[in-house]
Amino acid sequence: MEISRDIAQEIIDEVGGILSKQLNFFDEKGYILASATPERVGNFHGGAAKLIREGLDELIVYSDDEYEGARKGCNLPLVMDKAVVGAIGITGEFEQVRQYGQIIKKMTEILLRDHDEQQRKKIEGRIRTRFLDDWIMTEQDVSDPAFLQRAQAQSIDVSLPRRVVVMRIVDITRYSDSPTGQETIDKINRWVRQALGRIPGAIFSKTPSVMICLLPYQENQALTQFIDRTFRDVLARYGIQLMAGVDGGAGTDRLSVHQAYQEAMKALQACPIREGRRILFYEDITYELFLEEIDKNTKKLFVSRVFRNLGTKEIEEYAAILGTLYEMDGSITKTAHAHFIHKNSLQYKLNKLARITGYDPRSYSSIPLYSLAMLFRGE
Predict the structure, then answer these.
(1) How many domains, in total, are found in the chain?
(2) Are 168 and 197 part of one and the same domain?
(3) pLDDT, tens digit (0-9, with 9 covering 90-100), for 145-195
């Protein structure tokens, strides 16, 4: 077991602080890896080297000149999985420190085992994350023996039909750019992971901004219930709203997990475009299918050409009016009422817009142009 200098120093600080003793942590060759006396770090300790080399249960140093680099005190081996990985030393008069020896030895070994377990879990977590990333983010041959062996090591049945739900915090950029916000994101990730853990066969994964839920195959109604319940719990606990995209679910024999993930992501990306919709299924999206294929510069150019000769504030005003007009199926009366203006004033504004841009917002040929421009502008 390889012990880093940082971990050794953490243990020295923690154990020494609890018992108010001067401690030294030795590596397996007898060099001081960490110490309550920083200037001793890196020095050779002849007593510790003898202790480890000869497999002694304890070594007492009675005077400062008895062993090279040693001071009076008690030294004991540190044992992990029946192997000596180093030693711990307590500086002081023999009568004063020996009674603490076994206590400090046991405390140190417990902390080492805890650290080793944490490191093991981190490694296992990275292996699992790498497998899930490969399975979800790229197309895999689920009949490939090597891939099946990796899946089996993670206790994952890749042959099980699944649905994919992806969730994201609404307006996530408000949270991702600050330590407090990132902590909130992490808490929500853990909450959703725990909720998913109560469903047999369900799997949780994530990217920096998206939570990925792989559930055993179920119909849209059951998925909607799960999503609604998760939304309510997160809102009640953290005061934050989520949105979700779901794959089409059409014949999982046809779709791989990667394909289902791509569908769910397209649905999720359409949620902000469909104002008021926080759950979208892939089969429910239409024009959103191609919006993500258009780059931002092209969208910006399109908006400027449709709303030509207008300033930013004027575009905002007209976009609000047109959004209501199209929502009201072209009703001048309802749109005017919604914006608290006379219908003659609204007619004047619409005529002015047609005059400035060359596109009549009430014309069937121009409505798609304005609709797309408002969609592009809102992204």
Answers:
(1) 3
(2) yes
(3) 999 999 999 999 998 899 999 999 988 877 777 888 889 999 999 999 999
